[in-house]
Design brief:
Elements (H helix, E strand, L loop, with lengths): L6 E3 L2 E3 L18 E7 L5 E7 L4 E7 L3 E6 L5 E6 L5 E6 L5 E6 L4 E9 L5 E8 L5 E10 L2 E13 L1 E6 L6 E5 L20 E5 L5 E5 L6 E8 L5 E7 L10 E4 L5 E3 L4 H5 L7 E5 L4 E6 L4 E6 L5 E6 L3 E7 L2 E6 L5 E4 L6 E4 L7 E7 L1
Antiparallel strand pairs: 1-2, 3-4, 3-30, 4-5, 6-7, 7-8, 8-9, 10-11, 11-12, 12-13, 14-15, 15-16, 16-17, 18-19, 19-20, 20-21, 22-23, 23-24, 24-25, 26-27, 27-28, 28-29
Length: 365
């Protein structure tokens, strides 16, 4: 739902930030709600919701660190998904941050940090690890029953170490980023770096494989996804190979075309430190944004031409999300920023959101 009220950011009025304001019937729209996971200085974990003017809506302490967030299409609920290899995800009421349910992974399974909810609001699919066959990827299938999640089975992801899962615009086809790395239960230690099998998979909800594609370098782990309104798939990678080598850390699959490297310059690839954290696409402005937190770099390219629009420094840049006229970027160590992308010269503005301790993903509702 499109917001209709400008968001005040310090002394600036940035109507560009008003993209979508989730609201209940009868509730005044107050602009987008930014959802993310944060820690505090004592290492405690929180599921948080903030307005873009810095107003805290909730900060709910949770037992395990979370990663990505998905909201329900009709109910005022969001699932904060456990970071790999977490075993607890948290269903939170967006009105006040109340913890509605703690979802525990099934025996011999742990979460991989990501999930999606079907457009009808009944089914949820979460990327999970089968620890009896370490790295074998599955989607845990859950069903909403009386506004609570009940485990209902699982389907294979046709790959190893699934990370992010997303929908194509048809709302029925799943896109899975199989990272290709085997890990055991309660571990983030890679077991198979010299035998990795990363892939980008398109599949149906019942587990039927539609396509499976790879990039040239086997040690280039496909991790995170962004989907354009036209069905363009962007994937960002983490390269596990030797430091002196380079790999395509941003890849694209345009509708009807093969999965291939996005045209990023060699200099930009070298500046990313072999690691990317989050990718976002702005379908209206035809832009793609990428964070590389280990190298403190933030990038924006033209989605169609591949021309670089911004190559900037941003300390420990973490999550990125599209708003009406640009992008919002969080930081693990510094200030969050808003980038107005309407003009030729892109301008970054510090936001009133809290500084530091943000996880690598954000979700705007």
């Amino acid at each position: 739902m499109l917001g209709r009220r400008a968001v005040t950011l310090g002394s600036l009025v940035l109507s560009a930030l008003t993209l979508g304001g989730w609201k209940l019937s009868g509730q005044k729209d107050s602009g987008p709600l930014l959802l993310s996971a944060r820690d505090d200085a004592d290492g405690k974990h929180y599921a948080v919701g903030y307005r873009l003017d810095g107003t805290q809506v909730f900060a709910t302490e949770v037992g395990q660190r979370c990663h990505d967030i998905i909201d329900h299409p009709r109910l005022p609920l969001a699932l904060f998904v456990a970071r790999r290899p977490g075993t607890e995800s948290y269903l939170v009421d967006l009105r006040d941050g109340a913890l509605v349910q703690t979802i525990t992974s099934q025996p011999n399974r742990h979460f991989y940090g990501h999930a999606v909810i079907h457009k009808d609001g009944e089914w949820l699919y979460a990327t999970e690890n089968d620890t009896t066959d370490p790295g074998r990827g599955v989607l845990g299938v859950y069903r909403f029953v009386d506004e609570r999640l009940v485990h209902d089975g699982e389907v294979p992801t046709h790959g190893i170490g699934p990370h992010q899962v997303s929908w194509l615009p048809d709302g029925e086809t799943l896109v899975v980023a199989n990272g290709g790395i085997r890990t055991e239960a309660e571990s983030r230690v890679e077991m198979n770096l010299h035998a990795m099998q990363p892939s980008l998979v398109l599949m149906r909800r019942d587990g039927t494989l539609l396509s499976k594609e790879t990039l040239d370098q086997a040690m280039n782990s496909v991790r995170h996804l962004a989907i354009g309104s036209d069905g363009t798939v962007l994937a960002c990678q983490q390269f596990m190979g030797p430091a002196h080598e380079s790999a395509p850390l941003l890849a694209i699959k345009r509708p009807g075309q093969a999965f291939e490297a996005f045209p990023v310059s060699a200099q930009q690839l070298q500046s990313m430190g072999h690691y990317t954290a989050s990718v976002a696409v702005h379908s209206e402005l035809r832009l793609v944004a990428l964070t590389a937190p280990r190298a403190n770099r933030f990038f924006i390219w033209d989605l169609d031409s591949g021309a670089i629009k911004l190559d900037g420094t941003l300390p420990d840049c973490a999550g990125v999300g599209a708003v009406k006229d640009g992008f919002v970027v969080t930081s693990g160590q510094g200030r969050c920023r808003y980038y107005d992308c309407r003009a030729e010269q892109l301008v970054g503005v510090p936001m009133a959101l809290p500084s530091g301790f943000w996880d690598n993903h954000l979700h705007l509702v």
